Amino acid sequence: LERVLVVGGGMAGLHTVRSLREKGFQGAVTFLGEERHAPYDRPPLSKAVLAGSARGAVEKVDELAFAFDFAEAEVQCRFGERAVGWAPGVVTTGTGVELRYDRLVVATGSVPIQLGFGETLRTYEDSVRLRERINGGKPMAIVGAGWIGAEVATAARNAGTGVVVHEARDRPLAAIFPPAVGQAMTAWYAEAGVELKCSDPVTGPPPGVDHTLVAVGARPDTRWLGEAFHRAQDGSLLVSEYLETNVPGVFAVGDVAAYRSVRYGGRHIRVEHWDNALRGPQALVPNVLEGVGAELHDPVPYFWSEQFGRMVQYVGHHTSADRMVLRGDLSTPTWSVCWLDPHARLTAVLAVGRPRDLAQGRRLVTAGAVLDAARVADAGAALTTA
Ligand code: FAD
User: Fold this and answer.
1) How far is the CA of 6 from the centre of ligand 1 (A)?
2) CB-based contact 107:7 (threshold 8 Å)
3) Which of 4, 43, 87, 355 sits 20 to 30 Å CA-CA off 302?
4) Cα–Cα distance between 365 and 304 in angstroms, integer?
5) How many Å lie between the centroid of ligand 1 and the Cα of residue 64?
6) Is residue 181 helix, strand or coil?
7) ipTM greater than 0.90, yes or no?
8) DSSP 38
9) Could you tell me if residue 304 is inside a domain?
10) What is the best residue among 19, 35, 40, 42 to mutate for testing ligand 1's pocket, by most ligand atoms within 8 Å of CB?
11) Residues flanking ligand 1, CB < 6 Å
């Protein structure tokens, strides 16, 4: 094994490169990324970057960059260059260069779904443009009351900008959370002075606003890899629990990959969150260096969002078969929701302003702990099995 090529200059790519060197790989590492910047952290793009200089926030993309010395690690970086073609053992870039590899890691993330109008948010440049719009003070529309829609609406209101959010479903995050949670979140929009129009699937630019942000999700763009790879319907690469694609020697990690989860019954799941882009490479690299089977990728999914002055955190994975148990009152600033499966095992926790529930829940979900529903419902007591 002499040459590893990592395609995709985001967080998952960076952690792959870093981990290759940390685990002692001494061969050639080439790191290809379409954006012209070194890898940077994306969550601040819908939070601190939008807050603008008035709040002492980010002014340069370098402030978001992950600390890593590519020169010292002898990584050959090709930023500002896109992979456009694949054949066994070789990736072709947009400038016509052919990069040969012994192992290939695809970490190309995803791109926002476009509706044919409005702007989207994925890169630092998108965020700076959006900040200018928000601070321009003219009313804006957001399509999609998901995580990013809510965070941008928060930033707009903090800047004093009027904002209308159009949501196709009857409540925010209807695909993930039950009606009671969606109703609580609906109230957050109202409190912040955001007009939320639910059951309102827009098909063109909403009238009466200066600009529109479309935030209806993101999909991997893996077309450049051609036909040889197995994909899920959304274009993500289907990989094993060891993060290898169906093409031997080619791996995928981060937002681009739908991995086989042993924990969740062998289903392929795509986790589009920061924590997965951090942990995936840690499992991936042993499989690349020592052989497939060296390390399983099967974390309990975790993510957070900061919206309307609240820290919202979710750990685990629940289904509609699980029983929802409330800790606290949904109309107050802090509460949690736990989900118990039919065997009373804790499957997931949604914590709003209750980081302790999250931390304790994370341990219990990981352990598959069985809990007593009445005790779970006691918001004054710690979340434990005892
Ligand atoms: P990406 O970060 O998308 O990086 C992929 C890189 O590959 C990109 O730079 C892209 O340009 C490049 N690329 C794509 N195609 C090619 C190609 N053909 N050739 C070369 N390069 C290519 N998660 C949370 O858990 N909490 C949050 O609060 C949160 N906030 C977020 C806010 C925003 C605005 C966004 C966009 C995401 C947020 N996320 C959050 C999600 C988190 O940032 C992603 O899960 C994470 O960035 C995924 O990392 P990745 O490396 O897989 O993909």
Assistant:
1) 15
2) yes
3) 4
4) 17
5) 13
6) helix
7) yes
8) P
9) no
10) 42
11) 7-13, 32-35, 42-43, 45-46, 82-83, 107-110, 121-122, 148, 224, 254-256, 272-275, 277, 303-305
Whether 279 and 313 map to the same domain: the answer is no
Domain-ending residue, one of 156, 180, 214: 214
**Do 182 and 240 fall into the same domain?**
no
State whether 334 and 318 are in the same domain.
yes
Does 21 lie in the same domain as 87? yes
Number of CB atoms found within 10 A of residue 223's CB:
10
- The token duo for 280 is 């995936």
CATH number at residue 166: 3.50.50.60
* pLDDT(191) > 70: yes
Nearest partner of 139 among 120, 165, 171, judged by Cα: 165
Residue 248 in domain: yes
pTM of the predicted model as reported, rounded to 2 decimal places: 0.97
Instruction: List, for residues 217-240, the tens digit of each pLDDT value.
Output: 999 999 999 999 999 999 999 999
Q: Which atom of ligand 1 is nearest to the CA of 256?
A: 52
> Are the C-beta atoms of 6 and 103 separated by less than 8 Å?
no
DSSP character string of 339-386: EE-TT-BEEEEEEES-HHHHHHHHHHHHHT-B--HHHHT-TTS-----
Atom of ligand 1 nearest to the CA of 83: 19
The CATH number of residue 355's host domain is 3.30.390.30
pLDDT tens column, 36-88: 999 999 999 999 999 865 555 688 999 999 999 999 999 999 999 999 999 99
Domain with 277 in it: 3-110+220-290
Domain end: 214, 245, 275, which one? 214
Q: DSSP readout, 15-40?
A: HHHHHHHHTT--SEEEEEESSSSPPB
Average pLDDT score over residue span 337-342: 97
Q: Assess if residue 297 is contained within a domain.
A: no
Q: Which residue has the tokens 């109202």?
A: 190
Is 344 inside a domain boundary?
yes
Q: Which atom of ligand 1 is nearest to the CA of 272?
A: 45
Summary mean pLDDT of the chain: 96
Kindly give the number of the ligand 1 atom that is closest to the alpha carbon of 304.
Answer: 26
Considering only CA atoms, which residue is closest to atom 14 of ligand 1? 108
